[in-house]
Design goal:
single chain; alpha+beta; T-fold; 3 domains; 3-stranded antiparallel β-sheet; globular; disordered N terminus; binds adenosine-5'-diphosphate; binds magnesium ion
Length: about 325
């Protein structure tokens, strides 16, 4: 459902909820930009509904999981096949911490849904349940040949870590093929894409949420057009139980929410998929291995640790402004 389209002389802004988060497209351009805003957000909805969602029965991922559960194999579209292949590479490079086959453990914790639920409905999985779900994951248990995915019983795909980034990749294609847009900012939750040139060549400013007070901005980055920025944080989706906080990014090694010392990870990478995947991966890996992973992919990173320290790699520094 699209809501809140506003029109100024040459600015359009459209806000929607999609992929469990607030999405916005703000465009500066001429008269046709309203349609472009709608196209970008509608594309995000279609991606979720038709391809990526683990929960919606209309999606390809849902059908793949169903078919893997019943027959141990499923046919996959070239689009999803490509995501699986790219994700396998990051799985290998991230010490198996970024894992899109972790669906069983993710649905056992169910933090994305419980984060919106009543306190009384919240339950923490038992250790033995966690062990069992954890055992049903890993790229060693799946095999993709051409358009057929085979998997051991129990494997469930979850593309929640990259959906927003993939939506930005589609947004970028739409904006680039339009002749009417001067500049734009697209956000799907904590994943942002900047496009075009602002007046007087001014840079785009992107605020990073304060992980300790999410209504505030911790610091601001300045970037050029055509930049993909993704932030993953332990504050994004979480539940509280017995005075303990459990967030939505899980460490496949422990089966529990990642406890790497990092509370916020921002990544600038060459496309939306990569920045989204790497931000999730680095949050699990922690500072040292996260920096190594970022280097391997030529990505720029900014980490905030639990003591409020800011850690960046040199490539990120040009984006820090008077913070
Ligand atoms: P957000 O959705 O808040 O932007 P992320 O992009 O970091 O955050 O993705 C978090 C989602 O990724 C979780 O909700 C879950 O669906 C999935 N996920 C959780 N742990 C992992 C992991 N270790 N590897 C890959 N995906 C994960
Ligand atoms: Mg991510």
């Amino acid at each position: 459902m699209l809501t809140g389209c506003a029109r100024n002389p040459e600015n359009y802004s459209l806000t929607d909820t999609c992929m469990g988060t607030v999405c916005n497209v703000s465009v500066t351009g001429d008269k046709d930009c309203k349609d472009i805003c709608e196209e970008v957000l509608t594309k995000g909805e279609v991606l979720e509904k038709d391809y990526l969602s683990r929960r919606l029965s209309s999606s390809e991922v849902f059908k793949i999981n169903q078919s893997l559960g019943n027959e141990g194999e499923a046919s996959v579209s070239p689009y999803i096949g490509d995501i699986i292949k790219r994700s396998e590479k990051i799985y290998m490079d991230s010490d198996e911490t970024f894992d899109i086959t972790l669906g069983k453990l993710i649905s056992l914790w169910n933090i994305d849904e419980l984060a919106d639920a009543d306190m009384k409905d919240i339950k923490i999985p038992e250790d033995n349940e966690i062990e069992l779900a954890k055992a049903d994951s890993g790229f060693d248990k799946i095999d993709l040949k051409d358009n057929t995915l085979c998997a051991e019983k129990g494997i469930v795909l979850d593309l929640g870590s990259v959906g927003k980034g993939l939506a930005l990749d589609e947004a970028a294609k739409i904006l680039k093929k339009s002749n009417d847009v001067e500049c734009a900012v697209v956000s799907f939750g904590g994943s942002i894409y900047t496009y075009g040139k602002k007046k007087d060549n001014e840079r785009f400013k992107v605020g990073i949420v304060d992980p300790f007070n999410t209504s505030e901005i911790f610091l601001t980055l300045s970037v050029e057009g055509d930049t993909f920025i993704s932030t993953s944080g332990t504050y994004e989706r979480f539940i509280e139980y017995d005075n303990k906080r459990y967030h939505h990014i899980l460490d496949p090694k422990t089966g529990f929410p990642a406890d790497s010392g990092l509370v916020s990870v921002t990544v600038i990478a060459k496309d939306g998929y990569l920045s989204d995947a790497l931000s999730t991966a680095c949050l699990v890996l922690g500072k040292d291995k996260g920096l190594e992973l970022a280097d391997k992919y030529g990505a720029k990173v900014l980490f905030i640790d639990k003591d409020s320290n800011i850690i960046t790699n040199p490539a990120m520094d040009e984006h820090l402004i008077n913070n």
